[in-house]
Amino acid sequence: MPNWLLRLLAPEWSGSVVGLILVGIGLLGSGAWLMLAACGTLIVTGNIVHLVRFAASRRRCPAPGKLVDVGCTRVHVLAEGAATDHLPIVMFGGGHAPGAAMAHLHRTLRELTRSILIDRPGTGWSDTGPFPRSTAREAQEMIAALDRAGETGPFVLVGYSFGGLLAANIARRYPEKVVRLVLLDATPLETVLLGPRLGSLRAMRLRTLASAAWRAVGRHADLDEKASEANPAHAEGRRAFVEALGGDLDAMRSIEIGVGAQLANYSIYRELDPDQIPRIAWETVVYDGDLGDMELWLVAPGDAGEVTAEREVGSAADGDAARMINFYARSRERYLAASSRSRRVVAPPGSTHQFVYTHADFVIGTLSEAVRR
Q: What is the pTM of this model?
């Protein structure tokens, strides 16, 4: 889907515009054309239902932090706790997640230091932001949001999974703002570019488009969530995720019902298409030596753990499956070469990629050490 169309469809009221256009076209004709007008009427009605529910969710769950203007959009920043003899910490969750995805860590760390969660544009309480969404653009927006919120740093920067790609980008672009970079099983760009073509990534993008269309007409089912629930490989991690976030997850689900949020997810996930990576690689990749002598901690399972493509690995021939598991386990180690002061921290035995939730106490202990001056 081209960026100009994403811009047109991102406003929450776009469904009403589409519906009215169909009504107008249908009323110009007769017979079968009237069916088009009827469909347009249903779309307008559904979109009105969506707008009412969307507005009600914002009233019911007001933003806990502050909305700051970063030039072309507003970004929500939640900063709590006092940085006394410890360093302030900024955390980013996996995927294109809101700050609340790391709320279970934030609750403890804010008692120790200044803990900061940011809703990337198109997530949480932040505005959708301009298109296209990209890691490079959001790296700039995150630093601008911290500056406008009065958070000066320098920071301990933490990124989990694809949130690690964002954190590493910020560290590369603004090294003066980062004392220590902690990557929690972060996904390097090379994993997507050089690894096997994953049908799960394409399916994820298509689900975001389908979810956006359903939400525009008043249906608020989360298709990504349903797909995760249907995958037995995600059961333990999902259960830990729900238990760890608790009420913060409820609030996140309540407010993340927007059309623009799903289109923002689609836009940034599109840069993970192997055919798109060469176009954005130079501005997005963090490569060997890019971070100089910045402290970098890579925290991850010691072996393959859970890989991103359970279904693909499970369906591959034995030799290919072994190679894929080895590739995913080793490609994440590439981040260690980005700095001359890298440290490898091994997650508890039996950990998977979801150890941020299944072994939260271990992660809290590691981050508590990371914020020491």
A: 0.91
